[in-house]
């Protein structure tokens, strides 16, 4: 079944939005034909097109499935904490580079096993 066919079976069962300046984030719980739930996160922002003189809406979506919620949530929390520490001057560029290199080593090890 291609993406177009699959869309007719998607049903929104809950939606929440966050307004953040020129952006709006939509968090939507959807279901498949088999009644399996998943999350879509959509970033929507209004842009002015100088050539046409009109506004357009640009959208980006992430589809997140239940089996990935924990990993996604843990990683999201970790990254937000790093941003806060970096912004507060608690960690440096070198610290971040070291953390990234460590993560790359771990990822390679996991891929080999």
What features would you highlight for this structure?
single chain, 113 residues, Nuclear Transport Factor 2, Chain: A, 2 domains, four-stranded antiparallel β-sheet, 3 helices, 4 strands, 38% strand, extended
Characterization of this structure:
The protein folds into two domains: 1-64, Nuclear Transport Factor 2, Chain: A, CATH 3.10.450; 66-113, no CATH class. It contains three helices and four strands. It has helices at 3-7, 69-87, 93-112, and strands spanning 11-20, 23-31, 37-49, 54-64. A hairpin with a 4-residue loop joins strand 3 (37-49) and strand 4 (54-64). The radius of gyration is 19 Å and the shape is extended. The two termini are 34 Å apart. Residues 1-8 have low confidence and may be disordered.
Brief account:
By secondary structure, the protein is an alpha+beta fold.
What structural class results from the helix and strand content? alpha+beta
Q: Give the CATH architecture of the largest domain.
A: Roll
Q: Largest sheet, if any? A: 4 strands, antiparallel
> How many domains?
2
Distance linking N and C termini: 34 Å
Outline, from the CA principal axes? extended
Mean pLDDT: 90
Tally of helical runs: 3
| Helix content, binned percent | 25-40%
Strand order within the widest sheet?
1-2-3-4
Report the CATH C-level class of the largest domain.
Alpha Beta
**Order of SSEs:** HEEEEHH
Poorly predicted residue ranges: 1-8
> What would the CATH topology of the largest domain be?
Nuclear Transport Factor 2, Chain: A
Write the layout of secondary structure elements.
Elements: H1 3-7, E1 11-20, E2 23-31, E3 37-49, E4 54-64, H2 69-87, H3 93-112
């Amino acid at each position: 079944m291609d993406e177009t066919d699959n869309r007719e079976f998607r049903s929104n069962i809950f939606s929440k939005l966050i307004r953040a300046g020129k952006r709006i984030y939509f968090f939507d719980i959807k279901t498949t034909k088999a009644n399996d739930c998943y999350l879509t996160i959509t970033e929507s922002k209004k842009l002015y097109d100088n050539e046409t003189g009109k506004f357009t809406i640009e959208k980006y979506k992430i589809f997140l499935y239940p089996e990935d919620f924990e990993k996604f949530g843990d990683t999201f929390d970790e990254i937000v904490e790093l941003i806060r520490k970096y912004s507060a001057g608690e960690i440096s560029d070198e610290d971040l580079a070291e953390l990234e290199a460590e993560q790359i080593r771990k990822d390679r090890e996991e891929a080999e096993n």
